[in-house]
Design goal:
single chain; mainly beta; seven-stranded mixed β-barrel; six-stranded antiparallel β-barrel; 3 helices; about 35% strand; globular; TRYPSIN_SER; Peptidase_S1_PA_chymotrypsin
Length: about 260
């Protein structure tokens, strides 16, 4: 089976209220943050394509390095944001230190993004200056083929280890597994989940929660972008924008 990696970051609010916000339960607006439940510290530099998207200097969302001037994230992470309010930080496993910050030149969110149904939840950020690549800063290849269920995955991120709880300074990771879109829609009890999504699920006590989105789900290549879920590691799937469903859109908007 292919190995896959989901990169998640702690963020502020998801933005517009949708039916899926109800799946997260009743929590304050600034508590809609993905976290990793049941994880452990990730090795230093293990995920060199991972970025921290920051809004007004505060950690906001995840993303991935597609090329030297292109970062990919979720559309809901940048809804209503101006480029001047955002930065991406690359090259560090720690939230409070290290890394290099880059300014955003433009935001190219999918015009079909539906904040109610959380479909077409994808955006491209173009940087003002090219990223300098190192052993800890690299691009990720993008999957163009449709992948099904039973793909072994690793979830990683800086979210809360439990809810309520504090944020870990070190990047966390945990093993998960993909399921079919049909099973995902049934378990989440919502018809918005379709073949433009990819979902993960293992068992209660392992997964994401109160969530930040925009981070990459990777199986050798990036297969997903964190979009939504139902807290908190209680045996429900976590859902992602399926990268292979947006190959043409990505190619058009990255240049």
């Amino acid at each position: 089976m292919k190995a896959c990696l989901l990169v998640l970051f702690v963020s502020g609010a998801l933005g517009a209220v949708s039916p899926f916000n109800n799946l997260f339960g009743t929590v304050p607006k600034d508590e809609f943050d993905w976290k990793i439940v049941g994880g452990s510290d990730a090795p230093e530099g293990a995920y060199p394509y991972q970025v921290s998207l920051r809004r007004f200097g505060s950690h906001s969302c995840g993303g991935s390095i597609v090329d030297a001037t292109t970062v990919m994230t979720a559309a809901h992470c940048v809804t209503g944001a101006k480029p001047s309010a955002l930065r991406v930080v690359v090259g560090s496993n720690k939230l409070n230190s290290g890394g290099v910050s880059y300014e955003i030149e433009s935001i190219r969110d999918h015009k079909g993004f539906d904040s109610w149904r959380l479909t077409n939840d994808i955006a491209i950020l173009k940087l003002k200056t090219p990223i300098t690549f190192t052993d800890k800063v690299k691009t990720v290849d993008l999957e163009t083929e449709y992948l099904g269920a039973e793909v072994d995955c690793v979830l990683s991120g800086w979210g809360r280890l439990n809810y309520p709880g504090s944020l870990p300074n070190n990047l966390q990771h945990i093993g998960l597994k993909t399921i079919t879109s049909e099973d995902c829609a049934k378990l989440l009890n919502h018809s918005s989940v379709d073949r433009t999504h990819i979902c993960t699920l293992t068992k209660s006590g392992e997964g994401a929660c109160h969530g930040d989105s925009g981070g990459p789900l990777v199986a050798n290549k990036q297969i997903g972008i964190v979009s939504f879920g139902r807290p908190c590691a209680k045996g429900y799937p976590d859902a992602f924008t399926r990268v292979s469903a947006f190959t043409d859109w990505i190619e058009k908007n990255r240049y």
